[in-house]
Amino acid sequence: MSIPKQVTIVEVGARDGLQNEPKVSTTSKVRFIDELSLTGLKCIEAGAFVSPQWVPQMADSKSVMQQIHRLPGVTYSALTPNVKGFELALEAGADQIAIFGSCSEGFSQHNINCSIAESLNRFEPLMVLAQKHHIPVRGYLSCVVDCPYDGPTAPQSVAMVAKKLIELGCYEVSLGDTIGTGTPQRIASMVDEVRKQIPLHQIAVHFHDTWGQALANIYQALTMGVNVIDSSTAGLGGCPYAYGASGNVATEDVLYLCHGLGIETGVNLEKVAEAGWNMCQQLGKSPMSKTSLALKAQRLRPKS
Questions:
Q1: How do residues 86-140 score in pLDDT, each as one tens digit?
Q2: Which residues contact 212 (CB under 8 A, 6 or more apart)?
Q3: CA of 83: how far to CAs of 80, 87, 129, in Å?
Q4: Does any domain span residue 279?
Q5: Does residue 191 lie within any of the structural domains?
Q6: How many CB atoms lie within 10 A of CB 243?
Q7: Domain with 86 in it: what CATH number?
Q8: Which residues constitute the domain of residue 91?
Q9: Whole-prediction pTM value?
Q10: Is residue 239 among the annotated active site residues?
């Protein structure tokens, strides 16, 4: 299968990127999302309506979503684990919601305190409400390669749970290499099994770069026809329930790869990099994106 001519970038920096960072002010989050909205990104995950006891960094998501300057054509989504979270997201004006499950029993227990089967059952009333309010639902699936508690994940298990999420009513399933241990051959085996169970256009990928393999894995997925990629500006974030998950793949690096392959993204790389640097200044750190660092070095290089 040939590489797609166009891809959709799902920007997760304001949620997945910041949920594992020290406390960030509401004002800074709003500014970050507003800057990202001006880059050409069409899908921005703006917050999460989860227990503030477990993820205190997302406690101000309602305020953030009510203060951002929304642009036409941009979808602002929120992560919701249950009916209560859905209702809060609805009040905040979320255009879309995302639910999250696991294809590993150990991670499911540590992340949402229930089995895989129980988690799917819990989503049913939420899906009914989403359908009633005409809110699209995206599914996240964690540990599609390895689990920090159970070890390797069988590709058949990933395919089975992905299929169940689609049957529940999710329009798309994002396959997450949560601890970033995947390599292209393992990604190929996993995607191959998943696309036997659900249509290719309903598959997205969400790869962490802990072991430096995210871009190689994304390229592998692209060669198999996947055209939706999750990424986080500046490479911010990780997973609070997976030790060693050092960060998401950087949006800047994904854009550089795609543009180099002649793939249309509709996103301005330099504007994304600028938004990333601005947020990193608030966090007192440098971007994890090599592309962002190279862009800055290029600007600072003396002209001969």
A1: 999 999 999 999 999 999 999 888 877 889 999 999 999 999 999 999 999 999 9
A2: none
A3: 8, 6, 8
A4: yes
A5: yes
A6: 10
A7: 3.20.20.70
A8: 8-300
A9: 0.95
A10: yes
